[in-house]
Write a structure and sequence with these properties.
Radius of gyration: 21 Å
CATH superfamily of the largest domain: FAD/NAD(P)-binding domain
Oligomer: single chain
Structural class: alpha+beta
CATH class of the largest domain: Alpha Beta
Strand content: 25-35%
Helix content: 25-40%
CATH topology of the largest domain: FAD/NAD(P)-binding domain
Bound molecules: 8-demethyl-8-dimethylamino-flavin-adenine-dinucleotide, P-hydroxybenzoic acid
CATH architecture of the largest domain: 3-Layer(bba) Sandwich
Strand order of the largest sheet: 6-5-14-15-16-13-17-20
């Protein structure tokens, strides 16, 4: 089989790219290891930057998001028992964020790809990419126990942190940077009203907590947990009790609890792979970088990567110029490192790090005290949270 752009991975990165290319008359094939029904069971991101929203509109996958997504003008940080609001719109001169789940984005993208007759090959496990330095790289994949090849002009590695595309680049050409945090996030989804109409990030001596949401009757909550914990250690009652202990009293008192409909633990890590390009193989999204979820940046970075990559590919097919492809890695990485910095900072500010002792804890208190006393510091937080510009 042959196509113009072979896309490894049917997560948000791969699906947005295939749709943007299709709208410019460029053909692609998406190879996804799992079924798309399985991909839709993953509950991940919930907060979208304006740039990501704009890209989904450009991809014509925006109708339900515009109808059912929630615009948020601010969010809260709670510490020492009090909620403090970050007025995103006021501080940035009019920009907020959109609350709309990654699951819903993926559902919308699958729908527009299918309506356009796009090819998504499910249960196709990519084994590797060969000939990335030639004009016709080849993707090798396994489906139904048989090996197949997909010959392409370009390959987009959108297969997440555990995918095959990054491993296809010779390790001598890569530089990787990693920080593993000594804790995870235990998350639950429940059909209960959100704790507040805006998100609440909480720093507490028992550990971080986050109250987020999907709609008026669907809440997403997280608590910092030990890496040794398993979801079986956490009954719903134990989760709600622990969450209530970490929240400000007035929030805990009015918190509506109920049975969880999903429960999972995610370890926290920062990771960047330099470079994001090897010949005609381009890495995008979680395949190239991971951020701890505290800054809500993972999916948003996947979107900015795809913005740069789609422009490079479209320019190539329209004019033959490789200029956009040549600057892809440097443009994407510049934004990646800024989001890495912000995510690391938010994580460091709000989690419990017993190994840093009393001094570390006082530094966090002082930083929060400074933040809410300084418009300059709050503005810096707000402009990073809503997303730095693409160009
Ligand atoms: P994905 O979503 O991991 O998709 C990659 C796809 O590739 C497939 N795959 C393969 N296919 C074929 N052959 C192979 N060899 C393959 N190996 C893998 C996989 O099955 C999968 O379908 O990567 P993508 O598309 O780059 O998207 C990235 C986002 O999913 C991720 O960054 C975000 O979910 C991160 N994230 C958040 N991001 C935000 O912007 N805002 C948030 O509020 C936010 N919250 C979160 C998050 C991630 C979390 N977890 C679970 C890590 C909250 C959490 C708890
Ligand atoms: C979510 O709603 O899942 C969510 C929101 C904000 C974050 C991380 C996750 O920082």
């Amino acid at each position: 089989m042959r196509t113009q752009v072979g896309i490894i991975g049917g997560g948000p990165s791969g699906l947005i790219l295939s749709q943007l290319l299709h709208l410019q008359g460029i053909e692609s094939v998406v190879l996804e290891r799992k079924t798309m029904d399985y991909v839709l069971t993953r509950i991940r991101a919930g907060v979208l930057e304006q740039g990501c929203v704009d890209l989904l509109r450009e991809a014509q996958a925006h109708e339900r998001m515009d109808r059912e997504g929630y615009e948020h003008d601010g969010f809260n940080i709670a510490f020492q028992g009090e909620c403090h609001r970050v007025d995103l719109k006021g501080l940035t001169g009019g920009t907020g964020v959109m609350v709309y789940g990654q699951t819903e984005i993926t559902r919308d993208l699958i729908e527009v790809r299918r309506a356009a007759g796009g090819t998504i090959i499910e249960e196709a496990e990519v084994l590797g990419v060969e000939g990335a330095e030639t004009d016709s790289p080849v993707i090798r994949y396994k489906k139904d126990g048989q090996e197949h090849t997909l010959i392409c002009d370009f390959v987009a590695g959108c297969d997440g942190y555990h995918g095959a595309s990054r491993r296809s680049i010779p390790s001598t050409l890569l530089k990787t940077f990693e920080k593993v945090y000594p804790f995870g996030w235990l998350g639950i989804m429940s059909e209960t009203p959100p704790a507040d109409h805006e998100l609440i990030y909480t720093r507490h001596e028992r550990g971080f907590a986050l109250c987020s949401m999907r709609n008026e009757n669907l809440s997403r909550h997280y608590i910092q947990c030990s890496l040794d914990d398993s979801v079986d250690d956490w009954s719903d009652d134990r989760f709600w009790d622990e969450l209530r202990r970490r929240l400000p009293e007035n929030v805990a008192d009015t918190l509506v609890t109920g049975p969880s409909i999903e429960k999972s633990i995610a370890p926290l890590r920062s990771f960047v792979c330099e470079t994001m390009r090897h010949g005609r193989l381009f890495l995008a999204g979680d395949a190239a970088h991971i951020v701890p979820p505290t800054g809500a940046k993972g999916l948003n970075l996947a979107a900015s990567d795809i913005y740069f990559l789609s422009r490079g590919l479209i320019e190539f097919y329209k004019s033959g110029s490789e200029a956009g492809l040549d600057t892809y890695a440097s443009k994407a990485l510049r934004r990646v490192w800024m989001a890495e910095r912000f995510s690391w900072w938010m994580t460091s500010l709000l989690h419990n790090f017993p190994e840093t002792g009393g001094f570390g804890s006082r530094m966090q208190d002082a930083e929060l005290d400074y933040l809410f006393g300084s418009k300059a510091a709050l503005t810096s937080l707000a402009e990073n949270y809503v997303g730095l510009p693409y160009e």
